[in-house]
Amino acid sequence: MAKTLAVFGATGTQGGSVVSNVLSDPELSQKYKLRAISRDPNSSKAQALKEQQVEVVTGDTSDLASIEHALTGVDFVFLMSTPSWGPNALENEFNIIKSIADIAVRKGVEYIIFSTLPSCSKMSQGKYTAVTAFDAKAQGEEYIKTLPIKSAFWCGGFFMENFVTQPFLGPKPNDDGTFTLARNAPATLKLPYIDATDDAGKFVNAILAEPDKYVGQTFCAAAGFYSLAEIATLLSKSSGKQVTFKQVSYDEFKASLPFMGDLFAQGFACQAEYGYFGHGGEDKVSWATKNIHGKLTTLPEYFEKHPFSL
């Protein structure tokens, strides 16, 4: 009998990738019955899921009663959380993760697959504490591991989609028609990237295929590591415009951002000092990619499919 897999964020990038990858897998599509949890089950994206025979139910993290209902009769959960902003960002996001995980336990869910991130605060021993979007998920992972429920984790690198969805971090124009990609980190810093739309679900599929094998394991997910200088070159090639990389000071980079300047500036500072995934990040990614099926999209391939515009 098929297990019911409830997917948070099913109409978004991560959850949508989980849904599409399960549906396209001949074995997993028979092993799991998909339930999409959506704030708006009448949206066009939710309707598209229904047309693929995916059950769509209402679930809003601001209404925990709706989550109770959405997780009734569920065996597996793919859980992701969106960042909170403001002075209580870490606590607010963590409390949402905790509440959903607690509901999953109460409802008798068998297994949680949680979308986590590394803790900048923990890696830096308290030096970098403003990267709340990472730290909240890391605390959520730690909490889930204490619960009487099986769990595994996928930890994604930077999304290749961010080049479009986060234009405030992109190259800035110069007076001479060229562009500058600036970070408070050296040009040699290598960062992990993943095509989340196509490839996030491939890592989750590995867990779904052999859940008992991966209990407690974390899949650090990326197609490869690219230096900031390499990224500038790729952006140049894709856009047809000259893009160069420039390392700037912490304060200059922070001042260039429209919001949450310390979060992003501390994030890049932490990654320059400790690595995105912490010590041995490339080995962690190598292990994860050896345990999945299917080819991953490299950053050059992504830009060939999705040309970058400046």
From TrEMBL:
It comes from the Eukaryota. Signal peptide: none annotated. GO terms for cellular component: nucleus. Gene3D superfamilies: NAD(P)-binding Rossmann-like Domain, UDP-galactose 4-epimerase, domain 1. Pfam families: NmrA (PF05368). Residues 2-303 form the NmrA-like domain. Keywords: NADP. InterPro entries: NAD(P)-bd_dom_sf, NmrA-like, NmrA-like_oxidored. Belongs to the NmrA-type oxidoreductase family. This is NmrA-like domain-containing protein.
